[in-house]
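INTERNAL TRANSFER SHEET
From: sequence group
To: structure group
Subject: DAGKc domain-containing protein

Please process the attached sequence and return the structure record in the designated field. Keep the field labels unchanged so the import script can parse them.
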Amino acid sequence: MGVMENTSAVVVAGGDGTLAEVLTGLLRRADHEEAASRLPLGVLPLGKTNCATSAIWGFRGNPEPRHLAEAAMAVIRDIKRPLDVMEITPLQGGEEGVPPKPVFAASKVEWGAYRDARERNDVYWYWSVLKKYMTYVFSSYKDISWDCSADIEYSTPCSGCSRCRGTVKEEHKVEETPKPPQRWWMAYLPRTKPVSTPKEEKKIDYSSIINEECGVVKKTTVSDISDLSVVTRNTPESLDIPNYALALKTGPTNVGSFAFIQEGWSREWNKSNSYDAESIIGEITLTPTGNTKTNRR
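Return from structure group:
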């Protein structure tokens, strides 16, 4: 795209979906490595879900006006920080003979009953502010994805070793956020709490690091669970995940209607999800095996 050649930054006004579309378009480019380092992304949390930006600015649920102002001022003042991105590649392409294209996300991928119910809440618009709660009541007996059974292959996370890196990593200097020049009008602008500037990376000789678990594929299965999520550390509840790893989170099995409604309301009220199990992983391949459209009445 010719317009991108004269662009110094990209500002995204939206939520996780809009951010994923922008990341996908940017990282599918032939020069994606150069473009990713040359084009910083500014994100204004204006979407329905804002997990990635909420992890950066420290809010839950809908952003407050001050969070929007801080995000806008971060763009103006050119405050930067690295952002972890997850690559998702379908096992099969949309058309026969056409290889599947990857998509990219910054926060998480969800599959299951609670995700389906949340996506349907606009159908119950006539319940006004209660629609986000009533969607779980009506979805508890509708035809939704309850049986999230799947075969899973995953690897343990590796921060870097002779097997996956091999060569010495070249010294990478992270451009520090420059101090903005003082102007008369800046005295009237609120001071934004700066996001911590990443430190300069040191040269690491990965050829001397041995990790026997690197690249070893492990297998497991999940059956009759209510939901499943694969998340990065760009979510408020998963900030402690290493930047080279993902978290696989699974919900309870054989959830009844009352428990489904109770958990759904809890997620809306507390703005956080509860899971039965969580594993820290590297790469993951998920193949659905169950009947993902199970009638429960």
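Handover comment: Helices lie at 2-5, 16-27, 32-38, 51-57, 65-76, 113-119, 131-139, 257-270. The two ends are 51 Å apart (CA to CA).
Transfer complete.
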